[in-house]
Design brief:
The chain is built from two helices and no strands. By secondary structure, the chain is mainly alpha-helical.
Length: 57
């Protein structure tokens, strides 16, 4: 589950335009886009956790 601050709930304009473009994709294109976004989020979380662990040592 993702948790956002109130100001973070609305993507900036560039992301809004990109998500609107994604709506024009085929179901396969949408699925690929979702996988990419999820992978980026997982990578970000892993990097954040690794940095936190480094900072604790």
């Amino acid at each position: 589950m993702l948790v956002f601050a109130e100001a973070e709930r609305n993507p900036d304009r560039e992301l809004q335009l990109l998500f609107e473009a994604v709506n024009q994709l085929t179901q396969e294109g949408k699925a690929a886009t979702k996988l990419l976004i999820k992978a980026l989020i997982l990578r970000h979380d892993a990097n954040r956790k690794a940095k936190k662990a480094e900072d604790q040592h």
